[in-house]
Amino acid sequence: MVELGPLLEKLLAGGFICAVSDEAAFRHLQEEATRERIDAYLRPLNRRLASNADGSVHFLAWRALDEGAREQLSRQLAETVGSLLPLLEWLQLVQEALGRDGLAAPGDVLKPADFSSRCEDNQGLRERLERLATDPFFGSQSDQLDAQLKQVFKRLREHGYLIQPHADRQYYVVTGKIDYLIDLVRFIRDEENLPVDDQAPAAQESLL
Is residue 3 pLDDT above 80, yes or no? Predict the structure, then answer.
């Protein structure tokens, strides 16, 4: 298991492994034998390897929901639900600002400069970006467009929805965690009947 140590560390730290975030690790996880070895290692820890429906992103889930697991899962869910609306608004903003037909998808390249130029020419988009950037999830305290964009992209990178391949180049790549987010929202909507749609604007409902 030594050779899988770095991969296990990422997973146990709450990481999401996809072809964008870690191509080599993702390739390892395509092998059934590797997945079985990881699951065998995780079994005494009450964890298991999981993936979304499309298999585009891998992460850890609890094997059995004992009291400790339920408490941690409840905290994680509360944090995730608290970020859903600003993240959905961001997805909608990406579509409208960049003129895309579909949602941002793993592998898509996003440049803050593209958002800046379009928001400067569209007051409606500018106001929406300002509201989004100052949401507690993103936490911008600036009234300057460039600083707000910098904070939004920083937070998305910190939460694993984007990677920045080169620190000195201002472009980002969407990771497979965005697929996990979309699947989670659909699950909440379809299975749990939580009021996500009731709180989200109609434009965001159309995303899903």
Answer: no
